[in-house]
């Protein structure tokens, strides 16, 4: 295990503990600010995620956005490759996907221009620490090579960290939305 791998593992462990505590104490309506941000992008194709474990829940904001344009969720087709996104609507039939996340039963793939990105930790410079699979980094790199793609990290404020162990391949976030604030970093 390299030093960076060990440092990232420790950072994830600490961030997971902070996220769990924040999740247990979270009041209802944590997606309120995310809904407000997305209201400024009505109709723009976007992708969220189906929350697992102690992830902050974007589904209320995704449901609002789905009334105005396509909303998808990530589908892992091949390990080590970018994600694909299948259209999701409130109440659509779901099935179990890799890593415990639900995915639409019917594949209807499209390319989003906005990604709501789950994370383990974030910093005030737009850095993101994910689960370690690199899926979102590869996906954002691919999408950003084709067009401007907005990456919105969605997290509890308690997931903020300083001095994240980042690598050159880590794709920056354009903003982070928490239950209490919107932090903007600029466009990439």
Automatic annotation (TrEMBL):
Its EC number is 6.3.3.2. InterPro entries: FTHF_cligase, FTHF_cligase-like_sf, NagB/RpiA_transferase-like. Keywords: ATP-binding, Ligase, Magnesium, Metal-binding, Nucleotide-binding. This is 5-formyltetrahydrofolate cyclo-ligase. The keyword Cytoplasm does not apply. Its cofactor is Mg(2+). The keyword rRNA-binding does not apply. One of its GO terms (molecular function) is 5-formyltetrahydrofolate cyclo-ligase activity. Belongs to the 5-formyltetrahydrofolate cyclo-ligase family.
């Amino acid at each position: 295990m390299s030093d960076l791998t060990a440092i990232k593992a420790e950072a994830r462990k600490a961030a997971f503990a902070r996220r769990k505590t924040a999740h247990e104490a979270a009041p209802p309506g944590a997606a309120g600010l995310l809904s407000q941000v997305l209201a400024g992008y009505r109709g723009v194709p976007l992708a969220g995620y189906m929350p697992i474990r102690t992830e902050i829940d974007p589904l209320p904001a995704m449901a609002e956005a789905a009334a105005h344009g396509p909303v998808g969720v990530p589908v892992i087709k091949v390990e080590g490759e970018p994600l694909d996104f299948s259209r999701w609507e409130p109440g659509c039939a779901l099935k179990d996907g890799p890593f415990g996340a639900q995915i639409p039963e019917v594949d209807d793939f499209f390319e989003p221009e906005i990604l709501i990105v789950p994370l383990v930790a974030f910093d005030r410079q737009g850095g993101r620490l994910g689960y370690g699979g690199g899926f979102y980094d590869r996906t954002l790199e691919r999408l950003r090579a084709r067009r401007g793609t907005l990456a919105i990290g969605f997290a509890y404020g308690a997931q903020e960290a300083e001095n994240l162990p980042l690598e050159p391949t880590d794709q920056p976030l354009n903003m982070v939305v928490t239950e209490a604030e919107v932090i903007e970093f600029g466009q990439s």
